[in-house]
Amino acid sequence: MSMASTIPTAPDQPGFIRTEDGVALFYRDWGLGKPVVFLSSWSLTSDSWSYQMLALAERGYRCIAYDRRGHGRSSDPETGFDFDRLADDLATLLDTLDLHGVTLVGHSMSCGEIVRYLSRHGDRRVSRAVLVGTVTPALFRTDENPDGLDPAVFESFRSDCLLRDFPKWLEDNIIPFMTADSSPGMMAWVKSMALQASLKALLDCHRATTSTDFRRELQDITVPTLLIHGDLDVSSPLGTTGMTTAELMSNATLIVYEGAPHGLFLTHMDRFNRDLLTFLDG
Questions:
Q1: Which helix (H) or strand (E) holds 35?
Q2: Residue 12 — pLDDT band, cuts 50, 70, 90?
Q3: Is pTM beyond 0.85 here?
Q4: Residues 6+ positions from 236 with CB-CB distance below 8 Å
Q5: CA-CA distance, 83 to 115, in Å (whole number)?
Q6: What is the mean pLDDT of the chain?
Q7: Per-residue b/e over 182-196, b at no fewer than 16 CB within 10 Å?
Q8: Which of 19, 24, 118, 160 is 20 to 30 A off residue 183, Cα-Cα?
Q9: What is the set of active-site residues?
Q10: What is the CA radius of gyration of the chain?
């Protein structure tokens, strides 16, 4: 379904844009040139893309990233964590800054936001997309999606980990997200970002991510799309996410990093930045 775009207006405060339901979204805007908009994963913030944004800005790209509602420095509303509303937040950013020819780069949950934006708002402002460690097409098991996970696994995480001791879960799972040889400082930095998100946002976003089926939408996306996925990704197993997503899309290329985890844009930063630049320059 195509949604009418809003009339572009200037940001009402430097570093923030405001959505139609009154939420202030923090964003950063570095460099000049063709625009690349970065969307962070569940629990992380725009800071997570700093090493990509600097690399691309140095190469003549304009790099923009924002904190999802309920994350980082953005407002913490009670509602609005479904994919329709989150896609509309992305539309507000693109409309407010009046961006055209955009490359959208998402990681994990935000890959679903990109897919929903394209199906809901169209590709008038978007020239291509990059999906990293995607959660699409569907994480949950059904008769039509037998390779998905039992929904009870997700509910157990929410009740036993997220709503009981999220900091402990972060501590226990930072190495599977990254690698055992990642520096303690880098791992502490990632954990500090996750702890900035509101539990309400984390709960609602997790429910949306683990219960949304993007299969039909993926088939209608025609912009050139690069998928990058690690074969050791335990958050989004390659066989049920990246590979299946690539098969459903008509104009997608999948690159698999051997030995790479979910957070490959940090653990395999140099290779990832090269692949991203190659795709952008192509």
A1: strand 34-39
A2: low
A3: yes
A4: 108, 133, 134, 135, 139, 229, 242, 262
A5: 9
A6: 93
A7: beeebbeebbebbeb
A8: 160
A9: 108, 233, 262
A10: 17
SS3 252: strand
Sort residue 113 into left (φ over 0), alpha (ψ -120 to 50) or beta: alpha
Using alpha carbons, select from 262, 103, 110 the residue that is nearest to residue 177.
262
Q: Is 145 exposed, middle or buried (0-12, 13-18, 19+ CB in 10 A)?
A: middle
Q: Long-range contact list for 79-84, CB < 8 A, 24+ apart?
A: 79/204, 80/21, 80/23, 81/201, 81/204, 81/205, 81/208, 82/204, 82/208, 83/112, 83/113, 83/116, 83/208, 83/212, 84/116, 84/120
pLDDT digits 0-9 by tens, 139-149: 887 777 777 77
Residue that the structure tokens 């590709």 belong to: 123
CA distances from 136 to 22, 220, 227, 244 (A): 29, 14, 11, 8
Q: Which residue type occupies 171?
A: E
Task: Look at residue 250 and give its three-state secondary structure.
Answer: coil
CA dist., res. 84 & res. 80, Å (int): 8
How many helices (H) does the chain have, and how many strands (E)? 11, 8
The structure tokens 């990254």 sit at 178
Other Cβ atoms closer than 10 A to 254: 18
What's the pLDDT tens digit per position in 233-263? 999 999 999 999 999 999 999 999 999 999 9
